[in-house]
Amino acid sequence: MNRSSDAKSSSTGKTKRPESASRSLAKPLTALAVLVVAAGAVAMFLVKRNGPESSPVAASSNVAMPDKPVITTEGWSKGNPSAKTVLVEFGDFQCPSCAAARLKVDNVLKKFEKDLKVVFKQYPMQQIHRNAMMAAQAAEAAGKQFKFWEMYEVLFARQNEWVNVPDALTFFLKYAAELQLDVEKFRQDMLDGEIRNKIFRDLLEGQVAQVRSVPSFFLNGRMMQSVKNDAEFEELIAQAIRTAQ
Amino acid sequence: MRTTTWISVSIAALAFVGMVDASYVAIYASQGFLLPCGIAGGCDQVLNSPYARVLGIPVAWFGLAFYLTTAGCALFALSGFEQALRLSFPLVSLALGFTLYLFYLQARVIQAFCDYCLLSALLVTLIFVLHLWSRRHQGQPET
Predict the structure, then answer these.
(1) Which residues in chain B have their CB less than 8 angstroms from residue A190's CB?
(2) What is the mean pLDDT for each group of 10 consecutive residues in chain B (143 residues)?
(3) Interface pTM, i.e. ipTM
(4) Which of B20, B37, B81 is closest, CB to CB, to A43?
């Protein structure tokens, strides 16, 4: 049936046809769609305005990808601050491999204490780890009270306690109290935009450096790939230290 | 303007605000961040409590579905399907009951209030009142 003739007949005819019914349904459905899109847009605007400067995905699309990954050595560090060999880890507190990797890192750090600096950068994979972002915020908030590494240790060592709970914050507040932090300040700092921005900067840096999984290690700016075991990990670091000397 | 018309417009407008509120909380929750909280100051406690999810789904998503349905019914009522408003009344009543339960949880169990939840409670209450008004205007529906 021709559309114009249909319109004509429905406007002039006295009986309602199914087409006219669908047209009258189209109006509220269109209005609803407009309302949904507008509500989503306003919510996104508010999230962007009140939240971190930008989401990692959005931000990465605005950043020119360098030819070679550029890894800064800024971040939470331990070992020799002026060491020529720097091991950077992108880690996620909710990842079991990261918890295991910290023991490996501690071992190499003990062995090469004078020649190695270890830097930890936040890479919470929130799509698969629902409490990872909050854990990252907790570690950063503890860092504001000079206890980042203490919280780092607690979060990894007691990972099983908080990974699958809906109220992980309760656990983080408990850990803060156990570490003798000012719990109220800790709670406020967790909400701090500056902390969220710092985490997002780490995430962005990791994305630019092609981090695909956690933990990801970079030795003197180069990603350590296909490392078979702890012995090879240690050997690669030993080699880098020898080369630096 | 007919009473049903302005009631429907008001319900759609309130549902729109509700959609923004629920989407905002849902987006924040999906990013895993703690939500900045203004007046009430207890958003982190409320939204990270065990009561913030039902069957593993964040309550904000249920809120979003409710406001979406309510807005849809109001818009249908505006387009001449006036029974849509009446049909959504049981849902609005259920939402009010759930809102009262959430308010009780905030006041007595969690002992903290969340701005976004309070705003939603206000919106649901206003939508319920408008529904009552509309029913009163139309007369009691056939049972």
Answers:
(1) 34, 44
(2) 83 95 84 65 70 82 94 90 87 94 87 87 96 77 43
(3) 0.78
(4) B20
